[in-house]
Design a protein that fits this description.
The complex is a heterodimer. By secondary structure, chain A is an alpha/beta fold. Chain A has one domain (3-340): P-loop containing nucleotide triphosphate hydrolases (Rossmann fold), CATH 3.40.50.300. In chain A, 34% of the residues lie in helices and 21% in strands. Chain A has an 8-stranded mixed beta sheet, sandwiched between helices. A 4-stranded antiparallel beta sheet of chain A has the order 2-1-4-5, covered by helices on one side. In chain A, helix 9 (193-209) links the parallel strand 7 and strand 8. In chain A, helix 5 (114-124) packs parallel to helix 8, helix 6 (131-144) packs across helix 8 and helix 8 (163-176) runs parallel beside helix 9 (193-209). The longest helix of chain A has 17 residues, at 193-209. Chain A is globular. Chain A starts with a strand and ends in a 23-residue tail after the last strand. Chain B has a domain at 242-336. An 8-stranded mixed beta sheet of chain B has the order 6-7-8-3-9-10-12-11, with helices on both faces. A 4-stranded antiparallel beta sheet of chain B has the order 2-1-4-5. Chain B is an alpha/beta fold. The longest helix of chain B is centred in the C-terminal third of the chain and has 18 residues, at 319-336. The chains are: A alpha/beta, B alpha/beta.
Amino acid sequence: MNHLLEVTDLRKEYPLQSGLLGAVMGSRRVVHAVNGVSFVLDEGGSLGLAGESGCGKTTTAKLILKLLHPTAGSIRFAGRDVAGLDGSDLLSYRRQAQFIFQNPYEALNPRFTILRSLLEPLIIHEIGRSIAERVERVAGALDRVHLNPPETFFLKYPHQLSGGQLQRVVIARALLVDPVLLVADEPVSMLDVSIRAGVLNLMRDLSRERKLTTLYISHDLALIRYMCSVTAVMYLGTICEIGPTEEVIEHPRHPYTQALVSAVPDPDPTRPRRPVEIADTVPTPFQLPAGCPFADRCPQVMEVCRHLRPLLLPVDGGVRVACHLYPGSTPRAAEGDGAKLEPN
Amino acid sequence: MSLLEIDTLAVQYHTLHGAVQAVRGVTLSIERGRAVGLVGESGCGKTTLARALIGVLPRNAAIAGGRVRFDGADLLQLSGDALNDYRWRRIAMIPQAAMDSLDPVYRVGDQLVETMRLRGGLTSPQARERAERLFALVGLAPGRLRLYPHELSGGMKQRVVIAMALALEPQLVIADEPVTALDVIVQHQVLRTLRELQETLQLSLLLITHDISVVADLCDDVVVMYAGRIVEAGSVREVFAAPHHPYTMGLRNAFPSLRARSARLVPIEGYPPDLASPPAGCAFAPRCPFAIERCWHDDPALLPTTGGRLAACHRAAEADALRTQAPQAFARLEATGPQSVRSGAPPAGGTL
């Protein structure tokens, strides 16, 4: 299978507002929002980026969609470097890679009717020859996301629709332009439980039907298990574990993944509960530790973790883990000599 | 006698578009030392219910009927100072986003001490000493008392808020989405702490959440609300093992599980009704695959079913049979769409 998306050592840093105190102290602090993320996404594949808020998953998505510019690293889409795109190439990329936002209430212009919001992308990308043809396409898209009959939604404004309906409109808008890659950032977290399943099923059906490549971003591992064949768990701007979803969730290797999996509440009250024994200290994406970013919360921390950052290396089951508990992750040549390594 | 007895409580909001009936006759009791989870979707009236209990409804809301008895006293008859005696001292509330209500310019310890001095009548040294004990109880080092809110993480702030709620040794703690803004791991730890305290201090806990899994994990009993009413109540084990109301049955297949590979999820088609003009019959009928003629004009009462449980469904007696058909029945509804309330006609496929 071909790699549709190749992300290599992606980094995004934000300088912190230093203020008066900072000027006096002469400190220049930097937030490492994304700190060396690499993965490939095959054509037609589905990858879930999991992690807590602030771990850099949304920033990663925005970098991929070229809504932000990376500090370092590369993103290749269908073999082409995304950073170098401009003009009509960029426009074409923007058509092929569509984004579904977390908050459907904010994703649509409140002053536009649904019809106008959906005609907009067709006009921008010059899809359809006449207005009639475009309206036809919009009606088809609304119908496909089960907003029936489509005409009754044309002249409605976003505030007249419920959250679930709005998210369907947003999905319809993304699909109108025949995308190749669909990136969804917490697509159902603003919706009520009884509504979520319908939207998730719709996205699953559509991506199969149109052979879309999908990237889901969510803090909810259960959602990722339902939607994605590959799961990457992020912590403080890096991927700490990536592999086939079933492997990652059924046999989590990284202590952070283990904690994350066991912290998810279980809807079955008869199932035995597994305790999570990690500190609830705040991870801060500035002043990153020299070693493993998870070291100060890790229940299995070792001496080496404090000064040597583990690499994301393959273990068994098609999984790659960045953890010194797994011998593969420790760069052999540098073992015991953290000083020679780059701090990150 | 139960610690808290709510009897056909109704609350309305007065809006530009008329009265919205947010809570429509809720009857519920909470025993001493029990942890009760109140679950429902946004807008189902769960927060309004909680706020009505301690008389902190928004200005445009009013109690339209019913009674609330707490430890024998009728709370709705109390006002001013008399009601104030109950708040915090006997019923403490952890409101939504409580951690953001800590005053940013005072040390958290001072805020805790002030509460105990002003509301609990403790002397300063007494309050300081208790503040340290409370911090130990919620798992915070005593040194944290000297910190300002911005120096604490979300989880720690939430622990401070829990300590505050417990400061005056209440009998009932109402926690409204106490961990929503926190990360999964921290959520888990804070909820665990809350549950342990509830057990050791023999408190009654009313935990309000949209997350049914949290209730399954933490509570003894569960109360399910839909469109301003209770549709099902019972012990967590029994309700989750064998729900009696179609709404609860539908919820079970509506979200993915982490522990098991999910078959296709089955949504509950449609949307909750507009409570400005609630339907004449069962509010869930338009979304219910099992609705019969009667459901459209006759709102079912919350009645005992089996095993000390309650359900508001005309077909509760058939619950065991309906439950086995629920996944397919809800899936059929997903394909055909919800039934129109206004048509008033018995829905297609409503019979078995």
